[in-house]
Amino acid sequence: MVGYTRRQAIVASSSFISASLLAAPSLGQGKSHVVIVGGGFGGASAARTLRDIAPDIDVTLVVATETFSTCPFSNLVIAGEIPMSQITFGYEALISAGVSVRRGVATRIDAARNMIVLDDGQELAYDRAIVSPGIDLKLDEVPGYDAAATEVMPHAWKAGAQTELLRDQLAAMPEGGTFLMSVPNNPYRCPPGPYERASLVAHFLGKSNPTAKIIILDGKDSFSKQPLFVEGWERLYPGMITHVPFAENGGVLNVDPAAMTIETAFETFKGDVVNFIPPQRAAEVLLRSGLGGNGDWCPIDEATFESPHAPGVHVLGDSAVVGDMPKSGFSAAVQGANCAHVVASLLRGTAAERGVLLNTCYSFVAPDYGISIAGVYRVNGEGRLASVKDAGGTSPVGANDGFRQSEADFARSWYTSLTHRIFG
Question: Which intervals hold domain Flavocytochrome c sulphide dehydrogenase flavin-binding (predicted)?
Answer without folding.
Answer: 356-423
